[in-house]
Write a structure and sequence with these properties.
Blueprint lengths: L6 H9 L3 E2 L3 E6 L10 E8 L5 E7 L7 H14 L11 E13 L5 E12 L3 E2 H7 L4 H20 L2 E2 L8 E3 L5 E3 L6 E2 L24 H4 L9 H19 L3 H5 L4 H10 L6 H15 L14 H14 L11 H16 L1 H20 L6
Antiparallel strand pairs: 1-2, 2-3, 3-4, 4-6, 5-6, 7-9, 8-11, 9-10
């Protein structure tokens, strides 16, 4: 069968299961197509153990010959098990399990498919939908962003890099807490090389629209720890999108940039990529300046616009060596923005008085203009 020619058949096969694992029933696809994924399908189910409605993530059975993606799926289930009870990371409800289902073709050929799945808590939405829908005020955006940072920090504490932070992978729960999810591209940096996922056919892991340029350049193949830097780039891109509604990389790079950079660096043998990239990254950054928030709409209140602009720019420096990558500094800047925002009226009065006093001093010749 072709990969998705029979997607509807596969969705119905999952929905036809009366009970899975002795606990999951009333299985229904999420959306018309079981979610947007090519490698996994999403369903809701009633869980008799917890009494809650949960999300079932099922690996697409026609993709099982893709060893990398299947290993990614299994590793995600394992990694989520390390964060049970921790906030800001999506919670796994059940461990990985399998079931099989057969069907007959019109030629009376019997096929048997293996479905791997695990259950997670069910989210209400995701950050991408929240941005698209609108209606979030600046404070809510900052609180959502802070939650996203907390979730990523929990991964980094365990030496796990996400490698695909983006709005769609940040789930908004019913209580409005944001949780990081979709650890399919994640990897652990402190375990033996053998269990670690190899890089996929030389291409970057994750969504190229949120990929840091060093990932596009293939530096992760010789320096996996640089994915920590790339995760911070993803956070900056998320912050930019929250307050502008625009995808950062589409504002910075042209349509061929990702493939051009990837193709050029593919000719550089591993072991030399980082040196070559470091030699030209300054010119790369100079040729692709980051846009100002003020130039891309009025989504950021004026009282915090400059601070937000500086924060996202520090996170998204194209030269990874100069990029902000300390959560302490990041959280401090977020808290300052929240304090200023919550006291905007007082802040504006203070700023007006400060300017008045400065003008007085300039008029008296006591300070330079």
């Amino acid at each position: 069968m072709s990969i998705d020619q029979n997607r509807e058949l596969i969705l119905r096969m999952v929905e036809s299961q009366a009970v899975l694992d002795g606990r999951f029933s009333n299985i229904r696809r999420i959306g018309d197509d079981g979610g947007p994924g090519n490698f996994s399908l999403m369903f809701t189910a009633a869980d008799s153990v917890t009494g809650n409605e949960v999300a079932l993530k099922v690996f697409h059975p026609a993709r099982r010959d893709d060893a990398y993606r299947l290993a990614s799926f299994r590793r995600e289930a394992e990694m989520l098990g390390e964060f049970v009870g921790q906030p800001n990371v999506i919670q796994r409800v059940s461990s990985l399990a399998d079931f099989t289902e057969g069907f007959d073709t019109p030629l009376n050929v019997r096929y048997t498919l293996t479905f791997s799945y695990f259950a997670m808590e069910l989210a209400k939405s995701d950050l991408a939908a929240a941005v698209a829908f609108g209606g979030l005020d600046a404070e809510a955006k900052l609180v959502f962003f802070r939650d996203a940072c907390k979730g990523l920090q929990r991964l980094h504490v365990r030496q796990i890099v996400h490698r695909d932070p983006k709005p769609r992978n940040l789930l908004v729960m019913a209580d409005r807490q944001v949780k990081i999810a979709d650890l399919g591209t994640s990897r652990s940096l402190d375990r033996d090389a053998v269990p670690l996922l190899p890089d996929y056919a030389g291409f970057w892991p994750g969504d190229l629209r949120y990929a840091a340029p060093e990932m596009l350049a293939g530096l992760f193949s010789e320096a996996p720890e640089l994915a920590i830097y790339a995760d911070f780039f993803g956070l900056g891109a998320i912050l930019f999108e929250l307050f502008t509604g625009q995808v950062l990389t589409l504002s910075v790079f042209d349509g061929s940039f990702a493939m051009d950079l990837t193709s050029a660096m593919a000719h550089v043998p591993p072991g030399k990529r980082r040196q070559i990239y470091d030699d030209f990254v300054t010119q790369l950054a100079d040729g692709h300046p980051l846009p100002n928030l003020s130039a891309t709409g009025d989504g950021a209140p004026r009282c915090i616009q400059l601070r937000l602009d500086g924060l996202y720019s520090e996170l998204c420096r194209l030269d990874y060596r100069k990029r902000l990558r300390r959560f302490e500094s990041l959280f401090r800047q977020i808290e300052i923005c929240l304090i200023v925002l919550r006291n905007e009226e007082k802040y504006l009065r203070w700023l007006k008085e400060k300017r008045r006093r400065r003008a007085t001093l300039i008029g008296a010749g006591r300070v330079a203009r």
